[in-house]
Amino acid sequence: MERCEVAVLGLGAMGAATAYQLAKSGVKVIGVDRYHPPHTQGSSHGDTRITRLSVGEGAAYLPIVRNSHRIWRELEALSGESLFEQCGVLVMTSSPDYDAQDATDFTHRTLQLAHSNGIEHERLSAAQIRERFPQFSPVLDSAIGYFEPQGGYVRPERCIAVQLKLAEALGATLFKGETVTQITSDEQGVTVTTDQRTILADKVVVSAGMWSRELLGQPFDRLLRVCRQKLFWFELEEHARFAPVSPTFILHHGPGDEDLHYGFPPLPGEGSLKVATEQYSEASSPDTLDRTVSEAEAREMFETQVWGKIAGVTSRVAKSSICAYTVTPDGDFIIDEHPHLKNTLVVSACSGHGFKHSAALGEALAQWCVRGSSELDLSAFSLKRFDGQA
Ligand SMILES: Cc1cc2nc3c(=O)[nH]c(=O)nc-3n(C[C@H](O)[C@H](O)[C@H](O)COP(=O)(O)OP(=O)(O)OC[C@H]3O[C@@H](n4cnc5c(N)ncnc54)[C@H](O)[C@@H]3O)c2cc1C
């Protein structure tokens, strides 16, 4: 029987950050992961993740991402690794049915939040978007843009690797290639059973990503959906015109949830552009997730999301990958104590926008474990909001 103060179950984005922050606080921590993170089986691979201070998903996220930006820089100083590229972020709506009065429009919400929270930004017209960022010259004349110079992207695999390495250097014990099969709790603490050992912990943080449903039982099994997502890296045209410092971007080009794509500037030396869209209509599971990308899917992606929308990109696929979102009914996170397991905190239902917040959530969860509460107000992510929902 291994004993510790806190066991962190799942060492992806959320778990690596939590294990690091706990170890940094002097807590005796054990981390467990079924694979060897960073890996390509969960939700934290694919080279890059967008980060932005004006989080159009809601005001509750703003203090979290701010803390993450501070922590990425701290981690860079400690590790010497480059983790956070502040190349700016460009959010655009270029849709034939664009309604300038629609307050729910994502670009409007982002502009509004930046304005009311003093976040440095520019509002761009279609002409300004075309002039500054020629790759988006196809935007419609009615397009609007939000440019935030402090946004950009983080390197997910590096962030995870750095935090796990630092956690171990600070005394954390990490069991990799080991699967948690059961969690039970009583007055003695929380008992974690893995396929190789038993761990008795005072507290447990479950950060199991898309495997959370299976591990956590009710009510998570009815609240969480796993949605397969495709990532593509399309080769650039030989003389593609990109702004010298190109931003990460999000483009809404129609009214539907799936009428959007997001992407990243071409990474140095790669000659390709990473671009992806989102889908919420088909649910999957970790066991049945199809991890192959077909030629038809690549063709569809290019035709519906890239052709006529981003200039300078060919239909040739340099690379593709499958990743999964763990989605809640309202698209917001669940960060809360487990309703049936004592001393068990849950984080990981991050609906496809969690990486930018992960460093700060790790810090907040470590505080929660040590003193019973966190400096960040995480009440917006409590399970209570789903009470009574079928
Ligand atoms: C395609 C895609 C694009 C995204 N883009 C962005 C973006 O641009 N910006 C942004 O902020 N966010 C983005 N996200 C969301 C973000 O990446 C995720 O919210 C975040 O990475 C999820 O981290 P996690 O720790 O919850 O899950 P993971 O990183 O998947 O970690 C879960 C870990 O738990 C382990 N585990 C599971 N079950 C067990 C078990 N029983 N025993 C032991 N270990 C277990 C797994 O092996 C895994 O390592 C994107 C996600 C995807 C899929």
UniProtKB/TrEMBL annotation:
Keywords: FAD, Flavoprotein, Oxidoreductase. Its cofactor is FAD. Its EC number is 1.5.3.2. Residues 6-368 form the FAD dependent oxidoreductase domain. InterPro entries: FAD-dep_OxRdtase, FAD/NAD-bd_sf, MTOX. It is an enzyme of class 1 (oxidoreductase). GO terms for molecular function: N-methyl-L-amino-acid oxidase activity. This is N-methyl-L-tryptophan oxidase.
